[in-house]
Amino acid sequence: MAAVVVRSPVDLLLSATMTAATSKVEARRRAREATRRANEERAARDKANIDDAADFLVAVGKVAEVESWKRERLAQLRAQVDAEAAKRVAGHRAKAGAAVARMQGRGETLTTIAARTDVGIGIVRTMARHAPKCEKRTAGNGSHALGLEALSGPTAQGVDPHADQPPADAASA
């Protein structure tokens, strides 16, 4: 048979008070523990966020540095390309100018050169300005082999071979 335990109202009251006191202390302990864990988790999250924020700021700074480097490098490359293009254009203009000069040397006018090449007269004039200046033209004798210096006094080196001889008039006097 089962034994029946009969409790008195005082026993029940004392038991309920102890249970209530025990459970309130236990509840406070559990609440403090939960708060401590939450604070630790928050602190760990904050520390991780601070580390990630630092990584983020460093990376953004490096992106800005790369953009600045890119602008500088493109400016350098643009200057190099511009210089190379200027050299190439100057060479092509010189060739075109030399061709115009040769055609003019054969008696063609800029207008006829423009008409025969189907290019505007302005372009032909521009290219004629870029003709190499190395040829010295003589006045109408048709020979371009010798410049004007060969026809008068000093030689090409600038020295007169007859400078040490007296003039013909002085010898007869």
Automatic annotation (TrEMBL):
Keyword tags: Coiled coil
Residue runs in coiled coils: 24-51
Organism domain of life: Bacteria
Positions of the UniProt region annotated as Disordered: 133-173
UniProt-recorded name of the protein: Uncharacterized protein
